[in-house]
Write a structure and sequence with these properties.
This protein has about 280 residues and is α+β, with helices and mostly antiparallel strands. It is built from nine helices and nine strands. The strands form four sheets. The chain has a three-stranded antiparallel sheet with strand order 2-1-9, covered by helices on one side. The protein has a two-stranded antiparallel sheet with strand order 3-4. About 10% of the residues are buried. The protein binds zinc ion (ZN).
Amino acid sequence: MLKKELLKRHIFGKVAAYTYIIEFQKRGLPHAHFLIILKQGSKMYSPQAYDRIVCAELPDSHHQPYLHSLVVKHMMHGPCGAMNPKCPCMRKNIGCKDKYPKEFNESTRHSSNSYPIYKRADDKKTVKVRAHHLDNRWVVPYNPYLLSKFNCHLNVEVCSTVRAVKYIYKYIYKGHDKILYQLNKTQVDHSFDEIKSFVAARWISAPEAMWRIFAFDLNEIHPSVTLLQVHLENKHPLAFPENRPLESLLQNPTSSTTMLTEFFAMNRQDDHAKS
Ligand SMILES: [Zn+2]
């Protein structure tokens, strides 16, 4: 349904390219990281354009009571810092890894960082979340339409530099989750060998197992991108059995072709490939 909203109904504009990955977090529930590149004409360049898509403030509880309740339920960070030093986002010496609370800002503007600085007015509005009163500085950026539609945590941001793009790609290639486990006998073995009993295993939670059994996509890149091994003409690597005569090797026509040379060949012959 989210893909339909983004890619077919074009709620943010016409999409030129996209990629997403499904990740399974510690308690096993699926979580998608989605990166969309908009077509020229739909691209956002101004803070006013960002404001049409991303909001980082508490909505008015009288005019938008439903949206307000969803922001309180799903989009408030923490509290962390001095109010809750044990919050999972807290890191030694640096504090909150997501840098909350953010600063108040009268209007949205560009920043030298990966993401714009969103409008967070000091309007004295607060909500009580996990026993603390939080204001606009604690709101995780969201899109009002998507949040209302899906009623779940759904962070929407404008990625204005390549750093944010890199972050998404990192998720695709980092590999599967792992776990370290140990099987205990009922009787405690005093000659316990830590190295022998070390078992590093792959971890698949029940929701992930279900996702894979049903063969749902775990990631997608559109348009598809394939890495080609680049080489100079006739300087490509060739693998062959040691005892094979060199002559028969050279007579074999496939010896002189690689994925790259075939890519060029296809582009010469095929009209679809040319376009
Ligand atoms: Zn935090």
